[in-house]
Write a structure and sequence with these properties.
This protein is mostly helical. The protein folds into four domains: 1-65 and 77-101, no CATH class; 128-262; 266-356, Serine Threonine Protein Phosphatase 5, Tetratricopeptide repeat; 373-470, no CATH class. It has 20 helices and no strands. The chain has helices spanning 2-7, 16-23, 32-41, 128-140, 144-149, 173-193, 199-215, 220-243, 247-264, 267-283, 287-301, 307-323, 327-342, 358-371, 375-388, 394-410, 414-427, 434-447, 454-463, 466-469. It is globular, with a radius of gyration of 22 Å. The relative contact order is 0.08. InterPro entries: TPR-like_helical_dom_sf. This is Transcriptional regulator. It comes from Streptomyces minutiscleroticus. Residues 109-130 have a biased composition (Basic and acidic residues).
Length: 470
Amino acid sequence: MRRAGREIGERVSCDARYIGRVEAGEIRCPNYAYERVFLHMFPGRTLADLGFAPRSSVRGRGARADTEVPSPRTGSPPHAPSGTDAAHGPDGACRTRGPDGTRPVPDAYDPHDLHDPYDPFESHPRNHEESDVQRRAFMTGGTATVAAASLVPFGLAAFPAAAVPESGRRAGRTGADAVEEAVRRIRLLDDRHGADALYQRATAPLHTAYALLDAGTGRQATTDRLYAGAGELALSVGWLAHDSGRFGDARSHYAEALATSRLSGDPALEAHAFCNMSFLARDAGRPREAVRAAQAGQRAARRLGSARLLSLLALREAGGLAGLGDRAGSEHALARAQTLYGHGPRDADPEWMSFYGEAELAGLEAQCWSALGDWPRAARRARRAARLQDPHFARNTALYTAELADDLARGGRPDEAAAAGEVVLDLLDTVRSSRVRSMLDGTARVLRPHRRTAAVAAFLDRHATPARTA
């Protein structure tokens, strides 16, 4: 494996333990770096041919065993090992490319299409008439029954009646399955297209998830799954609000998830909630609150055994400290984040952190240096983030490139900033993110005094076109 990786320029830290996990079926879907190595080793084969699961089936909180065996702590079934291989190799890079060495260009965005066209594992043949109905139910919402139908694992014949309990009846395992599937689908769509086209449509599944909780269940294990799933769904919907500039709505959803974590005694959900709350507070101009939330998240996360989660929370703390102008404190938190990240992936890493690789680490570092006014260092980190980001996470690629454009503009390099801004405008054809657009608007304001430069003028003219702002 390591030799095959070197042949194609991938660095994978493959050892006997990794091979054992593959052979035992614990790694249901390898990460993108290992994907390239497997496909290089077995020309003409797909990962499905090798026995791996579709990536879309493991993007959510995590697949669980069919039998619900109570755990010693809560009586809930223990979380199964993560379905994805979180290891990114020593450099953490994910560099999936096409056969010609280029990154794929996204197709036109269809907000009603829940199928991820860049998932190399997803089974494409399906009953299209049936799946169209399911997609419309998910994206449009409506009555409680239609909202419940929006939680269906897409591609099944119909939403099981047992998932929508009648008055006086309790929710069952089918409802918990549906909530978890809704989390996976929302995250997959957000990764590729951003939040603006999704937020309003995603609130109906959230209401239904809490309605299922209110209905109660017959088993503690199912109740725990519903609490965890509803909390993760609240965080996913809150993130859609956050990324689309609805900070008040995002704060409400995050608080709801935090309350759910406290009710169910779920430290993983609690740490996730505080992580998102810290990020929101920083973006909303409340850096001191961002620091406190990140520190609270770290206290919850210490019980989980995930160095990567502690690393991300340290970066959240660093962002808040940078917003306060505390350079020494921010540098200390950044160093701690790097050290923790270097400990490597673990089985305890939450599945929602699949986005957190070397690219995200560099991107968050760039944001810290930008807040501290160190534009050259911020630009270097942002450029690295954009270069390393896997194309599946199109919204993050747009975000890092927008950060790069802004850092270059404020650092006195208008031509390079305009070129980066043009790349972001290309990505905004498929990505709907108010946060990215707002960053680009700020860059345009900084560049206006340089309009006499041809590259800057071209960017500003294109940025101002109605097609972009519509």
